[in-house]
């Protein structure tokens, strides 16, 4: 398994996708901080200045950039290789299809956490540069939200892996973008209807998007929904690999 993971990370390193993400996200966070410093901006978006700056950057990350980037990773690591017949290659060396897909899944989850952590740390650095220690005023609340956000990160990684087992690269990218745009609409405006079935809703609920509150009921519901969905997706991935015709 370790060797398989190394192969996946080596492929990602060759494609430079993670570096591209880091550069784009760093540019966005920096420009976001600069925009807050302009005259009048602090009054207009005062809630996100200083102690909530990191949360604002995370809200932008979970809105579409982060999930869409993970879909791209799955499209490259799984969809394109499955379409090209690359899943056949490891089978000749005694590695099962299940071992291969688990290695790819673990690499996607690792990338998800790496990108999420980079966004947090870089936004904190930029926040310190503009507002000093003020950026840590709400550190305890932000930390709790970030820990909770780990759950939908894992679940959406599994969801993209499952979807990529059925689609080619262009189809995967188109489908993921449509899903995210529709889910964005439902999560923001119809949360009271989808909270019990939509794990992606908790990207918004846990991050405090548009001032959404965080209470014990929300946290418990998020853990249950993501837990059930995650186990279901693992079962579906295993079933798909078992009956996949290569």
Helix count, DSSP H or I runs of 4 or more residues: 10
Uncertain segments are none
| Cα distance spanning the termini | 21 Å
Task: Decide which structural class fits the backbone.
Answer: mainly alpha
How would a crystallographer describe the biggest sheet? none
Shape verdict: globular
For the CA atoms, what is the radius of gyration? 19 Å
Average predicted local confidence, pLDDT = 84
Q: What order do the SSEs take from the amino end to the carboxyl end, as H and E?
A: HHHHHHHHHH
What oligomeric state is this?
A: single chain
Strand content: under 5%
Helical amount: over 70%
Q: Count the beta strands.
A: 0
Short description:
The protein is built from 10 helices and no strands. The longest helix is centred in the middle third of the chain and has 35 residues, at 97-131. The protein is mostly helical.
Describe the structure.
This protein is 78% helix and 0% strand. It contains ten helices and no strands. The protein has helices at 2-15, 17-37, 41-44, 53-83, 97-131, 139-164, 169-189, 191-194, 201-207, 216-243. α2 (17-37) runs antiparallel to α4, α5 runs antiparallel to α6 and α6 packs parallel to α10 (216-243).
């Amino acid at each position: 398994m370790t060797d398989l993971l190394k192969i996946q990370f080596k492929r990602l390193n060759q494609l430079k996708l993670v570096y591209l993400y880091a550069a784009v996200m760093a540019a966005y966070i920096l420009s976001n901080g600069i925009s807050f410093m302009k005259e009048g901006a602090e009054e207009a978006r005062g809630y996100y200045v200083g102690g909530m700056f990191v949360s604002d950057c995370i809200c932008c990350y979970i809105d579409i950039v982060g999930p869409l980037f993970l879909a791209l990773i799955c499209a490259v690591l799984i969809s394109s290789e499955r379409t090209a017949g690359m899943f056949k290659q490891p089978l000749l060396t005694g590695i099962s299809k299940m071992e291969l897909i688990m290695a790819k899944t673990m690499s996607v989850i690792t990338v998800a956490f790496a990108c999420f952590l980079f966004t947090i740390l870089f936004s904190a650095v930029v926040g310190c540069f503009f507002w000093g220690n003020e950026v840590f005023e709400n550190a305890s609340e932000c930390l709790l939200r970030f820990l909770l956000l780990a759950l939908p990160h894992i679940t959406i990684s599994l969801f993209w892996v499952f979807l990529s087992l059925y689609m080619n690269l262009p189809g995967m990218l188109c489908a993921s973008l449509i899903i995210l745009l529709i889910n964005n609409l439902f999560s923001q405006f119809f949360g009271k209807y989808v909270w019990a079935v939509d794990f992606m809703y908790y990207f918004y609920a846990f991050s405090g998007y548009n001032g959404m509150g965080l209470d014990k009921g929300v946290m418990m519901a998020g853990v249950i929904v993501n837990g059930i969905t995650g186990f279901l997706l693992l079962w579906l991935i295993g079933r798909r690999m078992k009956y996949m015709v290569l």
